[in-house]
Description:
Shape: globular
Number of helices: 1
Mean pLDDT: 83
Helix content: 10-25%
Oligomer: single chain
Largest sheet: 8 strands, antiparallel, barrel
Order of helices and strands: HEEEEEEEE
Radius of gyration: 24 Å
Number of strands: 8
Strand order of the largest sheet: 1-2-3-4-5-6-7-8
Amino acid sequence: MKKYFLMMFCLCCSLVIMTSCGDDDSVEDISFVKGELYQTTWSGQQVYYDNQGNVKAVDHFYLEFQKEPTAYYIQTDEEDNQRKSFTYKIEGKMLYAVDGVIFGHWTILEKTKNKMTMQAFKPKKCLVVLNRIS
């Protein structure tokens, strides 16, 4: 009987060792670093979705970030390339555009040195994809 319990104990221990947790389910915390957008220019697309998740419209533009809280939105779909200022604030993984064309609370989904993807609901899903120019 003791042999049986010893074998079961060894089997359980080996199962615990072989099925240990891995690090493959860890979540990378993407966030802004204070001042990282300062004096950068980005080309962008704002993609609007309908209730079924289909693309409804796409706007093309440039963003020029000045010292927080000032930025400029330059619309490229219009003939006169309208330049409009807006105010923004960054906090953690959120960019808050207080006013202007891209107003709202934008959450970073993807961020590298040269590319960012952010999402907001206005009230439907809306994505902004930014590619760094300078």
